[in-house]
Specification:
Elements lengths: L2 H6 L4 H13 L2 E2 H8 L3 H13 L3 E4 L7 E4 L3 H36 L3 E6 H11 L7 E5 L1 H7 L1 H13 L4 E6 L2 H7 L7 E6 L8 E6 L2 E6 L6 E6 L1 H17 L1 E2 L8
Parallel strand pairs: 5-6, 6-7
Antiparallel strand pairs: 1-3, 2-3, 4-10, 5-8, 7-11, 8-9, 9-10
Helix pairs in contact: 2-4, 3-4
Length: 259
């Protein structure tokens, strides 16, 4: 009756069978459980011990010479599934924190370039957060007006983490009145900013170069996409082009620096 639901909740087939028997049969000795569940006696005791440790079964030695077992309240199952869900969530966070390094190690061994594609606001967050593992300076081209318009909250959390980890960034931004005013005191301890003058429409794009990777995110009302390309040759080319542009760009003074 309940076995499929119990196994979906994380119990083994044997655990589900024994728990269901106790739910329906009340106080029961191990020998009877073994027969009804068609389990060997040794396995029955092992399963009962597992269920006791999970809080799903209680062992009663106070009711006579024979030890009896009874099921705990089904509400314990809810707590059990909540705990498992939290463990899965933590495992996902842990995996994401090392995924970039794992992929890099894999690509290094196989010699294969890696391309990852993401969509939506969550995809943008994942692309930005990938650079938080950078071991050197991040080189970035960015449309700051689009960042503020479309991903202000995501970017603020990203920059807070970057400040916390003291990850330095060099950013090249289009020279506009908005950019000069907004960026003059923008996380300048970890962010060095230069401006380029060019009659160009907004890029609606952010590009970052770091650790053999080049990432892109596009920002608009209709769609947001993110791409991470990991390849040493593409990285070296974009790094060279950035450094060339950086040498020719105009530094943005800090707020307390006289112009």
């Amino acid at each position: 009756m309940y076995e499929q639901t119990l196994t979906n909740a994380g119990l083994s087939k044997e655990q589900a069978s024994v728990y269901q028997l106790l739910m329906q049969g009340g106080l029961t000795p191990a020998g009877v459980i073994s027969k009804r569940a068609a389990l060997k006696r040794g396995l029955t005791y092992k399963v009962l011990e597992q269920l006791i440790n999970m809080g799903l079964v209680q062992k009663r030695d106070d009711l006579g010479k024979i030890t009896l077992f009874q099921a705990s309240h089904p509400g314990v199952l809810r707590k059990l599934t909540e705990t498992k869900a939290e463990e899965v969530k933590n495992a996902q966070v842990s995996l994401e924190s090392v995924m970039g390094k794992m992929v890099s190690d894999y690509n290094l061994v196989t010699g294969k370039p890696n391309v990852q594609f993401f969509e939506g606001l969550e995809g943008v967050r994942r692309v930005l957060d990938d650079s938080l593992s950078a071991t050197g300076v991040i080189y970035s081209y960015a449309d700051i007006e689009s960042i503020e318009k479309y991903i202000h909250g995501v970017n603020e959390k990203y920059v807070e983490k970057r400040d916390k980890f003291n990850i330095k960034k060099k950013a090249i931004i289009l020279d506009t009145p908005f950019a000069r005013d907004f960026l003059k005191d923008y996380h300048r301890e970890t962010t060095d900013i230069k401006l380029i003058k060019h009659d160009s429409p907004p890029f609606h794009t952010v590009m970052q170069v770091y650790d053999n990777k080049v990432s892109y995110i596009t920002l608009s009302e209709k769609e947001m996409i993110g791409v991470i390309i990991e390849d040493p040759h593409i990285f070296e080319m974009h790094k060279y082009l950035f450094e060339y542009s950086w040498d020719k760009a105009e530094s943005l003074p800090k707020l307390d620096t006289p112009k």
